[in-house]
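for the writeup, i need someone to sanity check this before i put it in the appendix. the sequnce is what the collaborator sent (i think, or maybe the updated version? ugh). structure was predicted straight from it, no edits. if anything looks off just tell me and ill rerun, i have time this weekend
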Amino acid sequence: METKTMVDIEREEELQAISKLRLLDDDLMRLVFDKNIEATELLLNIILQRNDLKVLEVVAQREYKNAMAGGRSITIDIYAIDRERKVYDIEIQRASEGADVHRARFHSSMIDTRMLKKRQKFKELHDSYVIFITEEDVIGVGLSLYHVERVFKETGAPFGDGSHIIYVNGSYKNDEDPVGKLMHDFRCTSSVDMFYSVLANQVRYFKETEGGKEIVCKTFEELADKRAKAREEARAKEDASRLLAMGKLTYEEIAKCTDLPVEEIKNLADLQLA
């Protein structure tokens, strides 16, 4: 009987994990939609209930850094721009708490801060859409889509500032409805069960071909390394914060103990004083 090596076991585990992936898993979703204009146009036209939207650019994992020292940054799952220069932030949220309304507000504000250059007029700010595709019906009314728009409370008239937030119910089931078909495809583990060929072809490539599976495996490895580094950095910041609170070491000494830049130690000190 042939003995399996650790490499063989790890490979089998990776392939098993790949077989279970769905578009509701952001790892696969990012691969399928990254630089894929056709798939992104399909997605946005269905969600926005249009048939004429044309995408100019689509990128997975676009980072928006916060200019404020110590401020929180975001990494957008899928970032897209259409021919009218409207901006789309498409997020997959498996856990309901990840779709908190304050998160939608924060994403919208971060996008706005990067849209205008110096001396541009505010009226030049393009429309933005923050779209959360959630595994469960986080709003809880059983609808396929939930649109969030600002209105004048007294009259009900739209405020018209161009900021739009949409929640897509990933658990919605209706094979006669385009949104229902789309969410069916997002829940599928097999490409043969999917309605939309544009999505099925990409899912088939990443899950059923050797080249595609290698890309997914590499993505798993990169994400594992990234998450490990993030945990190490978080622990270093916690250690630095404790040393700062003790007040016995200089910034330079704390930086040496934690392997963090001196500037980062100063930022942490400023946060403690705020």
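The chain has two domains: 6-208, 229-273. The mean pLDDT is 89.
thx in advance!!
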